Structure formats: C-alpha cells, structure tokens
Amino acid sequence: MTDLSLPNLPGGLPDKRQVAASFSRAAASYDSVAELQRAVGSELLGRLPTDRSPVRWLDLGCGTGYFSRALGERFNASEGLALDIAQGMLNHARPLGGATHFIAGDAERLPLQDASCDLVFSSLAVQWCADFRAVLSEAYRVLTPGGVLAFASLCVGTLYELRDSWRQVDGLVHVNRFREFSTYQQLCAASGLNVISLQSCPHVLHYPDVRSLTHELKALGAHNLNPGRPGGLTGRARIMGLIDAYEPFRQAQGLPATYQVVYAVLEKPL
C-alpha cells in the first residue's frame, strides 16, 4: 500500500509541479470517488447571492469541470472561464463543456485582466495554494466592483483521525498541515474584500476500512507530497500498525474521515 494523504503547505511547501502532475494523473478516476467534492461544491453553490447574475464567471481550480458545468447551467447567458493548474484536468473537462474557455493557470498569478469577472467560484482548490494572501489579492484584482468571491477550502482538523493514527505508528509526516481557520479569518479581513460570510463546518465520510480511504485519496490525486515524506512503498508492519491505530475511531457507520471545510463569500466594494 502506498503512503497517501495530502500535500503540505505552511512549514514545508509542495512543489506546484508535483501538485499539478498528481491531479493530472487522477483526472480519469477523480469523479468516481468525489463524494466530498460534490457535496462541498453544491453547498458553496447554494451560498451564492441570488440577487445577481454574472456576465462572466471564473471557476478557479475547476478540476474535471463538474462545477463549471453546474455554473454554466445556472448562468446560461454568461461567459464562463474554467481555470486549473493541472493540464490533465483541463484535458478531461474541455470536451464536457460548461465553460466558454478552459485556461491553464495559477490562482496566485491569474492570467486574466483587471476587473474582468463578476464571480470567482472556487471549491476545494485554494488549500493547495501556498500563498493564500496572493490568491485573495488576485481575486480582488480580477473582480469587478460588486463582484463576488465564493470559495470552499480545508483547515486544521481535516483528516485528524489519519494524522493521529500515523503519529502512533512512526511519527513521520503523512498528512497535510492545513491553515488554521483563524488564518483564513485574518487574511480575508485584510484582503480589501467585504466578508459576507465565513465559517468552518465539519464534513465526515465513513469507510469500511483504511484501505478504502487511502484508495480514494489516491484516486483523487491527493497524494502525500510533503517534503520529508517517507519514500517508496509503506511496509506491511507499518500498515498493520496504521490499521490498529485507526480502529478505535470506528463508528457504527464505519471508519470516519473528518474534513473541516471552510466556506466563504466575499464581495469587492463598489
């Protein structure tokens, strides 16, 4: 069993090329196991203001384009931009439509003109960005006055069961250290955007066994890209140790995997 979890951010940054390559490889399998991603993205869609319709929207970190297609259906008279750092994801999304343009780009340096979008929508993408301050700055730049940034991300508390179980096995870095929710609060408050809503909500998935969880992380492309991560395959003794350490977390529905989801809606001042 390979060692699978999530790329690290502050305190040891993942190489963006590794992140892009990992998600590119996962493009074909991603949607088959994207239960969390669809639930979170649907929740974020439901949080969008209902009193406006964008002329141009951006799906930032569009992945396979699932929510680009949803945005295209919701705002069918609008121009849609789907952007992702992983070319493999764009290659998968483009034939399925939904957006007007599919763009390879980095959320920290958007290849878009100032004041060119009325809505920036980003579901479970910006946690991979090392410089979230730059993400907010770029969103501010490309938004029109009165435009909306709606994002969902992950914060500390995500996959704590897997993190704590690995800690009992070998003490090595296996699971990402996400930003604190308070960091999201501070950076959003300082972004120049008006914070309409910002909250953290747990989302718990259940699995019959540890292998099912790690298989899903692999299919999602959410490999362990931490600097200093263990190399090669994970030995059988350590895997058995992980299974034993995770078992006390078991609930009636199965082994829980908690994702601490950040939902935010911000608006650029007029």
Automatic annotation (TrEMBL):
Q: Can you tell which superkingdom this protein's organism belongs to?
A: Bacteria
The pathway to which it is assigned is: Cofactor biosynthesis; biotin biosynthesis
Please give a single GO biological process term from the UniProt record. methylation
The entry lists its GO molecular-function terms as: carboxyl-O-methyltransferase activity; malonyl-CoA methyltransferase activity; S-adenosylmethionine-dependent methyltransferase activity
> Does this entry carry the keyword Transferase?
yes
Protein keywords: Biotin biosynthesis, Methyltransferase, S-adenosyl-L-methionine, Transferase
Catalytic activity line of the entry? malonyl-[ACP] + S-adenosyl-L-methionine = malonyl-[ACP] methyl ester + S-adenosyl-L-homocysteine
Q: Which residue range or ranges hold the Methyltransferase type domain?
A: 58-151
Q: Does the keyword Transferase apply?
A: yes
EC category name:
transferase
Q: Which InterPro entries match?
A: BioC (IPR011814), Malonyl-ACP_OMT (IPR050602), Methyltransf_11 (IPR013216), SAM-dependent_MTases_sf (IPR029063)
Among HAMAP family, the record links this protein to: BioC
Job of this protein: Converts the free carboxyl group of a malonyl-thioester to its methyl ester by transfer of a methyl group from S-adenosyl-L-methionine (SAM). It allows to synthesize pimeloyl-ACP via the fatty acid synthetic pathway.
Q: Which family does it belong to?
A: Belongs to the methyltransferase superfamily.
Protein name listed in UniProt: Malonyl-[acyl-carrier protein] O-methyltransferase
Task: Give me the gene this protein comes from.
Answer: bioC
